[in-house]
Structure formats: C-alpha cells, structure tokens
Specification:
By secondary structure, this protein is α+β, with helices and mostly antiparallel strands. It has four helices and 19 strands.
C-alpha cells in the first residue's frame, strides 16, 4: 500500500513543485493509572473503625474529610482536602479528588493483601506540612508496589493538538512510534529515547509501549514570567520535556501529568514543538495544585495583537498548533521553506525529520501544503518577540 501511495505522490510532486520553487526564489528570509470519579463523600476515621459515606472500611483513629469530585473517568489526578490527622495503618478506598489541601501529607500504598479491590490502598504515614498550601495526589513505584502520596507542587493538566499529526477521527497519529506499515513509511519506530530539545529527559522504552503508552511525539513545556511587555523581557522559571498522547494529553515519562514547582504571581504556560509554531497561554494567576491548561479551547492561546493571524488553527472540532516552523524560531519564512525543500528534493524517507509535518515518514506535497500557507502569510508566534 505504501509503494502505491508513493507512486501517486511522485506524480503529484511533478506538477506541484514548480509553484513552490518559484515562491521560494521570490521570498527573502526575515500512563497514568486512572482513578474513577465519584460523588462527594466523607471518610471518617474513628477510634475503632473507618467509614466512607457510612460504609465500613477499616480501623484506626482521627477523622478525615475527603471531598471527592466526579471527573467522568478522565485521566489525571486532582487535589485532596484533608482535615485533621491520622495514626495507625488503615485500608481506604480512594477515587479522584478535587479540593484544597489543609497541610497534611499522607503516603498511600497500594493494597496487595486481602481486600485488594481496585483503588484499595493502605494509609501508612502522616507528616506535618505548611498549612494553607495546595497539593496534588501523586504516585511512585516502589519495587512491585505503587505508593500514592500527597505533595505540594503544580500538576499541569495540559491538552494540546498538533496540526500535522491530526487524523480524520479527531485524534493524532503516533506513526513515529508504531511504524504502521499501512499508513506510514517507517520501517521501524523512530521516536528518540532522549528528548530533541536538549532538556535531557530519557525514556528508553518510548518505542516499545505503543499499546499501553501511545506517544505522538515529544513536547517542550516552559513556565514563563513576563518581566516587561514593552521590551519583551521574560524569565523562564522551569522547563520540562513531555510526551504527547493521541488524545492531546501531555504526560511525564512516568505516565503522570507533569509536576512543576509552585510559582508565586502571574505566569504563562508555553508549549513548543520541533516543527510546529509555539504557543503561550493566557495568564495563570494560581500556579499551584492542579493547574488546567486546555489549548483545545478557543482563546486559550494568546497573540501579540489582534491584527496577527490566530495563534492556532481549527481542524474539525480541535484547535491545533500550526505546522511548518522547521527551525523552531517562532516565525514562518524562506529559511523554513529552504530546509523543507532540501529534504523534499532528496527523497528522505523513514526518518525522524523536522520537515515531516504529518509525521508519516515521508516528505511530500501534503507537508508542502502545510508549510506554504504559513510561509506565504508570514505566520509568527507570540514567542517570536521574546526569543
């Protein structure tokens, strides 16, 4: 099937290449484990027994109130509200949380003995922490056990889509990871085990877990403080390389949503991709606890002025980052097209390439159409002014 499609695209190239060449000459450079949601509930830890909404759970002392918010079984951890302290060891059943923490830190270890029903855990520790801070429910792997714990931080609930990777079903393809022989030109998976942005994140199993942990590509996420809009001064407070899922979710290599440091004052969330135009979020005034950032919502990404092109393009029901910024400078121009044209004419196939915008392992007229629209209209990102 690939070879047939290859011949079809070869015929199209002969007719569509000349206008592109003329234009180039005229331009000048300028897995995570899901905790299902439930209704608001109360876990009471009395002197002899523990109950949740009146149902017996276990035994120990003290009382905790856990407001539990329904989350429609979506992936991601929320916040946990705890009042009081607890001692001893108690098995409790936990679901997905969303509330404000009062300053108690509790480790929860997945149950492995009797009563090991889904989401059954053992409370094994309680420590004091700063009151009034927000926190998130996280997990870590300790040998064969998964330990759940409450910690301060900003857990980024990020959703973003890439124009080039979108398919007709409203999701993104992960051909670079799967090397699907029916729809791509990859002979083997090509996602790099180390992020391509120089952050230094390594994920050795990135190409071997496509069924359980599908990955479209690497993303770079930065947390900015804008120091001066007039002079375009900003400070990068923190950066991480994350893994983009087909549904638009961005996760850390441990399969959880990325945990950033808490930031005081107003910050911006910046998302970059190696061949798509970078984007910046609206101001985030509270960067602690669970921080939602859905770039699939119109207006979430900002631009420098209303006269500039929209910072994202809508495909079907999804807002997507523009494809075509080959050199990742935040601007579409002849330098991007020159790099694209060089690979286009050399018939590069089956590699991890910045000029392969739809990420199918082959540079052709489909990629050409995406970059031409940006180059002709001189699209630029708000990030261009700060880089």
């Amino acid at each position: 099937m690939k070879k047939i499609e290859h011949m079809k695209r070869y015929m199209k190239r002969s007719f569509l290449l000349l206008p592109a060449l003329l234009l180039a000459c005229a331009l000048t450079a300028s897995a995570e484990e899901v905790l299902p949601g439930t209704n608001y509930g109360k876990i009471a830890i009395g002197a002899n027994e523990v109950t949740m909404n009146g149902s017996y759970i276990g035994a120990t002392g003290a009382e905790l109130y856990l407001p539990v918010t329904a989350n429609n079984n979506t992936t991601g951890h929320g916040l946990l509200a705890i009042a009081g302290t607890a001692t001893g060891s108690t098995k409790i059943v936990l679901n997905n949380f969303s509330a404000t923490w009062d300053g108690t830190s509790i480790d929860l270890v997945e149950a492995t003995a009797a009563g090991s029903a889904v989401n059954a855990f053992t409370m094994d520790a309680t420590t004091a922490a700063t009151s009034g801070k927000k926190a998130v429910l996280r997990s870590r792997v300790d040998g064969e056990k998964r330990t759940w714990f409450i910690t301060t931080g900003a857990e980024l609930d990020l959703t973003v889509f890439l124009q080039g990777a979108m398919n007709s079903e409203g999701a993104m393809n992960n051909y670079i990871q799967t090397a699907d022989e029916n729809y791509s030109y990859f002979d083997s998976p090509q996602l790099p085990e180390t992020d391509p942005y120089g952050v230094g994140v390594n994920y050795p199993g990135i190409n071997s877990n496509a069924e359980t942990f599908p990955v479209v590509d690497w993303l770079k996420v930065e947390i900015w403080r804008i120091d001066d809009w007039n002079t375009n001064q900003r400070t990068v407070l923190e950066q991480k390389a994350l893994l983009l899922q087909p549904d638009g979710t961005a996760l850390d290599i441990d399969g959880q949503r990325a945990l950033f440091n808490v930031q005081e004052g107003e910050v911006r969330i910046v998302v970059k991709h190696r061949n798509h135009l970078g984007i910046m979020s609206k101001a985030v005034s509270d960067f602690s606890g669970k921080v939602p950032c859905n770039f699939d919502t119109e207006g979430q990404a900002v631009r420098m002025s209303e006269t500039e092109v929209a910072p994202m393009v809508k495909l079907g029901n999804h807002w997507c980052m523009w494809a075509g910024d080959v050199n990742s400078d935040g601007y579409f121009d002849a330098s991007d097209y020159g790099l694209f044209l060089a690979d286009y004419l050399s018939w590069r196939t089956g590699e991890y390439m910045n000029t392969d915008f739809n990420m199918d392992g082959y540079i052709d007229t489909l990629d050409d159409a995406m970059i031409l629209s940006g180059v002709i209209n001189r699209f630029n990102s708000i990030l261009y002014y700060f880089e």
